[in-house]
Amino acid sequence: MGVEGHFTHNIDDAERVFTARQPDILIVEKNFLDGNSSRFEKVIKLLPGLRFVPVIYLGTRDDQGLGALSLFNQFQIVRETESLINSARELLLPSVRIRFWGVRGSTPCANFENIEYGGNTSCLEIDAPGMQELLIFDSGTGIRNLGNHLARRNETSCNGRIFITHPHWDHIQGFPFFKPFYDKNNKFSIHLPEQYRGGAQEILSGHLTKTFFPVTLDMLDATIEYVTQSEERVDYDHYSIEYLVANHSTKTAIYKIKIGGRTIIYSPDNELPLKTTPIRFIEKFQEFIEGADILIHDAQYTLQQYKEREGWGHSAWERVIEVVKPTGIKNLFLTHHDPDTDDESLRSRDRRLQQYVGAPFENICLTKEGAEIRIPIVKDEKKVNRTKLNVS
Ligand SMILES: [Zn+2]
Ligand SMILES: [Zn+2]
Fold first, then answer.
1. Neighbouring C-alpha atoms within 13 Å toward the C-beta of 315
2. What is the pTM of this model?
3. What is the pLDDT of residues 352-370, one digit of tens each?
4. 199 CA distance to ligand 1 middle (Å)
């Protein structure tokens, strides 16, 4: 893999480079921060995609100006060039990258106390080496930032597929705010499991009528194809998709994505009941997720909260762990955080999750808006060479 580097001491130049192209990693030297810390902070805030970029800082923890780097979800401090090279090498392995643009459940919450984990609702982007098209899951309010990030690049066109798990508000509310839909050079396919009231086009056009919103589907300039997604595996360039129907109040997909020799399960809305009803659901779910490298699952409640909300379609984090443990899943990311759960509670939940690291999980944590998971691709699926993840 060829690596292209850009070296600069000038913040305007850095801004120009960041806008034109999302870097794979960012190496920041103490001297650069000394003079540019506050401008640098402004640039990061302006460019939402930058938060996903892992940063390696060459300096010490006591350096002034380090505050600007706290806006990144993943930064590590190194003192010597040798550890810098090792860290960079690890981060630059050809990987499947999973980016969380929205992790909140039910409704967006733009509150001060939700800033750390993020207030935007479900939206996930997956990328792998060689992919020319975008692969997006759900179009909650998080997709707006993804669209802004894409619109800033001076590319002539962008194409992609958006797989919506189900049409509850929190999974489609960002849909008309996705800027690439307003460019006639762009092409998208929107996928959705069949609903009681019809397929993807009927559902979205029913939501986007003048009564509810000024933009209707026929006002979108991009070429858009609507696909009613079937449960069976469908192969696309670079990846395949299949799904299991979740235990939720409308037909909802638990998507299984095979990409870069890896298997990722995305299940933002799924109730794992405490009892055995619906019949065999837990067993079916366990069979479906077995062997996956990464599971991203609904954990909106604590067990205590769940007991008052049984049948609402979401899971308690304790129950998710209990059900997932026997399947041998090593990497579990809990998502769809309740809008009434503040950062402090999520932080303490995250700390409690750490007790499961090593037994049986290698990685277990809550998802954060702006975080990225990098998992190295496997060329030969039978020979799993390494599972070490970079989690921001
Ligand atoms: Zn939801
Ligand atoms: Zn839902």
1. 27
2. 0.94
3. 999 999 978 999 999 999 9
4. 19
